[in-house]
């Protein structure tokens, strides 16, 4: 039993080794990893960036709303401050002591009428009181029909606040209306002393009476509702003594702060306090969590699809290869009847099709008679193609050129004509040496296309001495690569310039010099080019120069070839040396 288990384990290990050594298993694993790693990385950074952006946006938005709330509250209490100052706004400089104590008036109107004016100046003012200092008489006006108990008015708590700064407005934090029968309402009380400003000012102000009015804390509700806080979020409006004016909690007291709570505060200057909001981060960023979960689910789905597609693709790719491997083994053993069924038109299908054709061709090549016949037919076919292709190309270009001329596109027609001449010059077989004028004509056809392409920014100038015969022979396609090199490396970086060609005879040599007024090269670069030209085995980036140099030396001898001179920011000159050839004879006949 143990031996059987051991053999099963060995077979399992062997199968895994085969799978691991399989190119398709490696390809599939690489395909999945290459897909999953960028997917996970991109998704992670995207989620982190999105989360941070939304959290900052949400926090800043909430902070701005709290700032607006503090400004509105500060403005509201400034207005209450102005309301309390109405006691001083009379048309004449009157004796307030006489007005209040004798006439029972404020600003020349009865105290009760004045209190009504204050009462109905703001919808959040619930009750108004005026306590006369001379006899402690209390005047009262209220909006709600409730029994007022003046003896319970907590003046002993309110008056000390006013005595500290008699000329300033006093704000009593939220408290219950214990001075009304059966009232459980909480209010904020605002108080201001009425000081007699007539006559001489004294060190201690002459307080005639004190005005109090109760404000409904519902004033804060309208600002609180605009915040759209959650069920577990808290808001406090407190002064610098930590006395609470408003809170949305039943306990009306501070709760402990944890790491899951975001605390934001904004100052309320008039109250000498601040508004503080404690927001539960979980509820504030709940939408972010939902979005994050959706992204993670999408990542999981994409990963699963990627793994399934990788496995499916590997199996689909491995199946034809395995079938092909089996048939190749049969062919290797000598069975030339092997054949693989082609089931697709992709690369694998073409590979299988190629294998089948290879087997078929192998059968035919066994017969020597047919081998010779096939080679002969192929040679004839290639010869026929080599004759047909240039003529077909020339005829096609001529048709395109005539069509361009017919549509008044003369420049396009000239370019096609130049291209046709170049192709004919290059493709023509059997010519290693050509007359000098033919090589120059090919160069002018080439430069015409360059001239149109670069909008006449480059100029070609050709000069020759009188003793030069244009029928002298020159190596075919030897000048054009040098001119092309001058344009590409000398003039293009500069933007415009001139390529000059001079042709002269020196003793028994034909000297062709190609020069330009381009960017030039430093001495180190020129020296490196000379070393590359001198050593055929030395690699170089200037393949065109080296090819021309090697062709001239191979066809003419070691004393012929290229010579380079250049100066930085001045230009480059390349000299080509040829033997003088009167007619077209082989290079091997040179003396």
From TrEMBL:
Record's subcellular location: Cell membrane
GO terms assigned for molecular function: kinase activity
Topology in membrane: Multi-pass membrane protein
HAMP domain: residues covered: 315-367
Keywords: ATP-binding, Cell membrane, Kinase, Membrane, Nucleotide-binding, Phosphoprotein, Transferase, Transmembrane, Transmembrane helix, Two-component regulatory system
Pfam families: HAMP, HATPase_c, His_kinase
UniProt cross-references to CDD domains, sorted A to Z: HAMP (cd06225)
Residues that span the membrane, as ranges: 20-45, 294-313
InterPro entries: Bact_2-comp_sensor_kinase, HAMP_dom, HATPase_C_sf, HATPase_dom, Sig_transdc_His_kin_internal
Protein name per UniProt: Sensor histidine kinase
Organism: Paenibacillus oenotherae
